[in-house]
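Data card: per-record layout.
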Amino acid sequence: MNPPLKLLMPLRIPELAPSLGRIIVPRRLLDPVAAWSIVHGLAALLVDGKLKSHVTTGAEAERLAHTITDCFMLGVAPRA
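The structure for this 80-residue chain is written out next.
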């Protein structure tokens, strides 16, 4: 049996559903984590040079960051 997973940073998750193989997180907690993940992932790709054939200047990196942020904001915007 594996020891319990220790998280490097505290998370407030009100309900765990291991039998479903999922973590159930309220939307108000999910959006900030998703936003951080997107920004961190893009930064890692840029720093590691994984996008160097597509992003060659700081201005292009900034434009990509704005585009990705806009896509995220559209995805979490309330729908009428």
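Known properties of this structure: The first strand starts at residue 15 and ends at 17. Residues 25-76 form one domain.

See the next section for split statistics.
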